[in-house]
Amino acid sequence: MNVLISTLLAKLYPSIPKHLSMQNYIILLITILSFSYCSCQSPAADEEEAMTQNEILMEDEQEGNINMNQDEQAVITEVQVSGTENNYSFSVRIKSPDTGCKQYADWWEVFDEDGNLLYRRILAHSHVDEQPFTRSGGPINISENQFVYVRAHMNPLGYGSFGFAGTVKEGLKSELISISKAKGLENAAPLPKDCAF
Predict the structure, then answer these.
(1) For the chain, what is the domain count?
(2) How far is it, in rounded angstroms, from Cα 162 to Cα 177?
(3) I need a surface site. Which of 69, 75, 90, 150 has the fewest CB within 10 A?
(4) Which domain does 91 fall in, by range?
(5) In 85-129, at which residue ranges do the beta strands (DSSP E only) sit?
(6) How far apart are the C-alpha atoms of 157 and 188, rounded to whole Å?
């Protein structure tokens, strides 16, 4: 039995010392099997969840609700938050394929899970020669635990799919946001009046 266990362990884990007592081999084997069992359980659930998320993203992309081509949209690459509760400022970094006033990132916005516009920072001109660029805005009247989305809009292409989401307390993280999410905000005030250049 000792030879069988030691041979099995030596084949699976060559770095294990060859001269362990039978009791140590059994303890080691039980430990390895218990870790193997635990690690086999968790990834399956993670894979199932990832498959579901991937299926949703694929369906959204097929329906035109997610645009995976970053060259066709304003992409938020970073969000930094400063200030105090109910008086935050957001600094938002945007990469966009601006060509001038006919095609440029014209705003970024913050909205809640119910689709309510909480803040919109109008961008008065294109940023053809300044890519990516950062613009700050506020005050944004939210609590540290309120879940929000931050996304950018491109004239005339519409909302981009690459935004940020989360809470101030837990941090805002990069997230794909459906173009159709709170789509009605596209016509809500304030809106850009003109493009300077």
Answers:
(1) 2
(2) 6
(3) 69
(4) 70-184
(5) 87-95, 104-112, 117-122
(6) 17
